[in-house]
Write a structure and sequence with these properties.
The protein is 36% helix and 7% strand. With 433 residues, the protein is mainly alpha-helical. The longest helix is centred in the first third of the chain and has 23 residues.
Length: 433
């Protein structure tokens, strides 16, 4: 079965090489035409009841966060203003309600507590300090209130969301959380906190076997079936095989190692998926919108022909370096209602040996390389995801709107992330949980 995949994919590879050569000699300045499936366009819609929504992951969230910053280079949204506050006078908090809010917010994603107070200990994180003995420290209520309402007043670099300033929690909610935390004045004490420290857990095993084995990875099977796409003619009565030959294994060998890359014709960096979405209509009238099933399958077929070969990005090109720097800045840019950046979870300083909501962030350290196994089959969703879809998914905890999946901002960010994979072997399609 794998031989079939390789033969099919090989046909795609020659095509890309031939195509890349043609692009190199093409005139520059052609504007990029976005071709993305409807649900990945980042469009804002109006519901019949007049509500403004952004549909990307239906059933998870559809809130419109247009008021807040996004990854867009030109954005109308604004960062949450820093707000110094005092607790409302004459009002007290309800510790029992505060404990419920603790789990719902969910504060437990970053802070461990001893015993039943934190709910399910498996979800405890350690991006923030353990707080099981917080009340014993006898902090001022005004201090605790400020830390929850907007920690940036006390620590401008805090990764904790400005819960009150962003409108995520009402003043009474913050008061209730203060009352709960101040009630934790003994219990297991420091020893109990250490016992709950999730950083002491061993990283869980996550071995799926050979991800290119179709009996283990459904994405590999889908890539095999992409051979039909290789020979399917488009509106211009041409197919991939027309220009690149019948064997994608021979045609596409090593071509995926050069993506993401700057393409002069488009005046921007493109991923392989972006490139296919533009080249398909141009060369053969073949519709391959980004995030569409055909685009993903053809991208997997092409990338399989480079599996085992080292990523070879042209990072010396001045235009590529500019895009890399923009991507680096995007990686560290705080956005959305929760004021988060990619770096808050994926930088070596934060990710290495840390836990967030029951997940070991060491696997998410960008310096380890996170791009060379995409597109990947996500076992928890039962479908293929591209890296762009994974980036869009991250906007949910950011509280930020998505850009179109083929936006140049995402392409530059992908380039920056892919640079950590430079020289490492590609292994796509991957398997993710």
């Amino acid at each position: 079965m794998r031989a079939v995949v390789k033969r099919g994919a090989a046909r795609v590879a020659v095509g890309l090489a031939f195509l890349a050569a043609g692009l190199a000699g093409a005139s520059s300045g052609q504007s990029w035409v976005s071709r993305v499936v409807a649900e990945a366009r980042g469009a804002i819609e109006r519901t019949p009841d007049g509500r403004s929504v952004q549909h990307r992951f239906r059933g998870w969230a559809d809130d419109d966060f247009s008021a807040f910053t996004t990854h867009a280079y030109v954005s109308t949204g604004q960062p949450v203003p820093v707000e110094k506050v005092q607790p409302p006078a004459g009002r007290s908090g309800d510790a029992a309600r505060g404990e419920r809010l603790w789990r719902e917010a969910p504060c437990v994603n970053c802070h461990a507590l001893p015993g039943g107070a934190q709910g399910d200990a498996r979800w405890a994180g350690d991006l923030g300090p353990p707080l099981g003995n917080y009340g014993a420290r006898r902090p001022e209520a005004s201090y605790t209130y400020q830390v929850i309402f907007d920690p940036r007043v006390l620590n401008p670099a805090s990764v904790m969301p400005p819960w009150g300033a962003a409108g995520l929690l009402a003043p009474q909610d913050v008061l209730d959380l203060v009352a709960f935390l101040h009630s934790l004045a003994g219990g297991a004490g420091a020893a109990g906190e250490a016992a709950q420290d999730p950083s002491r857990r061993a990283p869980p095993a996550n071995y799926f076997g050979d991800n290119l084995d179709p009996t283990r990875n459904p994405a590999a099977l889908l890539a095999e079936r992409a051979e039909a796409l290789w020979t399917r003619e488009g509106a211009q009565r041409a197919s991939c095989a027309t220009c690149h030959g019948a064997d994608p294994e021979r045609a596409m060998a090593g071509k995926a190692t050069r993506f993401p890359r700057y393409v002069e014709r488009y005046g921007r960096v493109v991923s392989l998926e972006d490139f296919l979405s533009a080249h398909g209509p141009e060369a053969g009238g073949i519709d391959l919108p980004v995030e569409g099933a055909d685009n993903l399958r053809l991208a997997m077929l092409v990338k399989m022909q480079s599996s085992g070969q080292s990523l070879n990005l042209d990072l010396d090109d001045p235009r590529t370096r500019l895009a890399w720097e923009r991507g680096r800045q995007t990686f560290h840019k705080r956005i959305g209602q929760r004021n988060h950046a990619c770096a808050d979870c994926h930088s070596p300083e934060q990710a290495r040996g840390r836990w967030l909501g029951g997940r070991y962030l060491g696997r998410a350290d960008v310096s380890l390389g996170l791009t060379r196994t995409y597109p990947a089959w996500r076992t928890s969703f039962g479908e293929v995801w591209s890296l762009r879809r994974r980036i869009q998914w991250c906007m949910l905890p950011h509280g930020a709107n998505n850009l179109a999946a083929d936006a140049v901002e995402y392409a530059d960010l992908e380039l920056y992330m892919a640079s950590f994979d430079q020289g490492k072997p590609l292994n796509a399609p991957g398997l993710k949980d």
